[in-house]
Amino acid sequence: MQTIRITTSQNIDIDYEIGGLGERILGRLIDLAIMLVVFFLGLILGSIGGIYAGSNTMIYIAVGVYLTILAFYDLVFELFMNGQSPGKKIMKIKVISIDGAQASVGQYILRWLFRIVDFALIPPGLVALIVAALNEKSQRLGDLVAGTMLIRTEPRSKLDSVVFMPVYDGYQPVFPAAAQLKDRDIELIHEVISNYLKTNNAMVVYKMSERIREHLGIKTPNGMNDMLFLQTLVKDYNHISAQADML
Fold this sequence. Notes:
Blueprint: E1 3-7, E2 13-17, H1 21-53, H2 57-80, H3 86-91, E3 93-97, H4 105-113, H5 115-119, H6 126-134, H7 141-146, E4 148-152, H8 156-163, H9 183-199, H10 202-216, H11 226-246
Antiparallel strand pairs: 1-2, 3-4
Helix pairs in contact: 1-2, 2-4, 9-10, 10-11
């Protein structure tokens, strides 16, 4: 399984599994199937509206709305679903920046604009298919220009049992300093734990733990290993954040 090692802004090396060409194609086919369903629903509703209105105006409006949705489908979903369209989510792949961070709005827009070249030429998708097949990171032209790539995501159910341990009533955070962490810090901890589950690379857990301890100025209690430390931090952060939301 092809992987790529990316050094994050926290200087943590994480091995990502690259989203394969087959997964990209299947994800795209799923998205196209969704759009086909939307098209027929719009056509039916437009036809019904046209019958009641006695003109074809409703059909034209329905077609116009559909074409707008079709044009902005990928951009809107990737912007608001953290780099995933419904098809990508089902195939468990997502768009990230080439440096391992979440892609910026500008990167999403740039890769979307290059869909005109990647998919609009005849036959549709030929350029994207050729470029991705010849690229070691399976990047289409839009990815190369925007500095993005697709990676495989860890199934949520597998991470839940490791990261999201239940918090009972009356729970007292072990590390109150976890309140100083940001959402991006917690996301990176998730990625580190996910990487460990896939590669058994304990060094990435150790390095992350060391940087968090240094950042927060805390020490690990005796008997607590680095993995448990990261899990506890996430648990404390979730508890503190939940309490703050209730205020």
